[in-house]
Amino acid sequence: MSSSIVWANYKNLQICDIHDKQRPLVKDYILKHFLSNELHQILGYHENMEFQEDLQRILQHLLENDSSIMVWDKENDEIRGIALMKCMLEKWYSWTALKVLIRNSNLEELIDLSRNSLKNMASEMNGRLDSLHIFYYFLESDLCEDFCFIVKFFQAICLVAQHMHMPRITYMALGSKEGQLFEENGFQEIQRLLYSMYVYRGRRPFDHFRDLNEMYGCLYEKKLQNLKPFRELQIRHGENKEKEVKEK
Predict the structure, then answer these.
(1) Would you list the domain boundaries of the chain?
(2) Which of 36, 151, 206, 208 is the most buried if burial means most Cβ atoms within 10 Å?
(3) Superkingdom, according to UniProt (predicted)?
């Protein structure tokens, strides 16, 4: 852990980047919690082996980008949370490159839900919607209830985005609970998709969410200020202050 960049500390927890040696551990952690998610289970992802194979390939691709962060418990040497993220830029054809890795139609539907929402917003704004996109996040239940930790967690995500020179962070919330969490941490809803109305290649792939009383998904955005490069920061030395006083 000593070689990892630590974005924030909280009690015995570090919010840090993911070393390449830790990727297998992180992949297993994500798979476990992703497949046990209630929304994902109602779509049958946990029973779809082709989906899981493609998901592992996507996870490897995203983790190699070095934008993701994890919550590491220093006392117990274990992961307590994750934010799987990647800088998605139009000039890099990031979304197209991601789709090349996907064979499973269900995973393609899930990825394209975010992709299409971002494309729609970009066309409405007559510009690009480049962002640090959060593909997946998970936090242990006790951390979700700790307001101070949550603030630190989202601050760390913002720092990552700023250091990557991203103008915004985006996230597609499938359920109302996670949507509320993002709203409480400064994200704005910029698009809402009704599951009963969302059609992808002639079908409504997320209609079953309504069985869990989830009627719509929301695309969230948080705009960020650019970090100033160090060379542009003005250092006010004593001599400079005296000159300024004399000039006045």
Answers:
(1) 6-247
(2) 206
(3) Eukaryota
d(CA 124, CA 202): 24
Structure tokens at 22: 């830790």
Token duo for residue 17: 């980047």
Q: What's the CA gap between 53 and 58, in Å, rounded?
A: 9
Q: Strands 168-173 and 131-139, how do they pair?
A: parallel
Which pTM was predicted?
Answer: 0.89
**What is the β-pairing status of strands 188-194 and 168-173?**
unpaired
| Spatial contact of 102 and 59, defined as CB atoms under 8 Å apart | no
Architecture of domain 6-247: 3-Layer(aba) Sandwich (3.40)
Contact 206, 195 (CB under 8 A): yes
Per the CB < 8 A criterion, the answer to whether 217 and 206 are in contact is yes
pLDDT tens digits, 217-248: 999 999 998 766 555 555 555 555 555 555 55
In this prediction, residue 227 carries a pLDDT of 66
Q: Which two tokens stand for residue 214?
A: 């989830």
- The 8 Å CB, 24+ separation contacts for 120-129 are 120/191, 121/190, 121/191, 121/219, 121/221, 122/90, 128/89, 128/90, 129/90, 129/168, 129/170
Q: What angle do CA 166, 172, 175 make, to 5 degrees?
A: 150
Are the C-beta atoms of residues 140 and 197 closer than 8 Å to each other? no
Other CB atoms within 10 Å distance of the CB of residue 130: 20
Strand partners, 6: 16
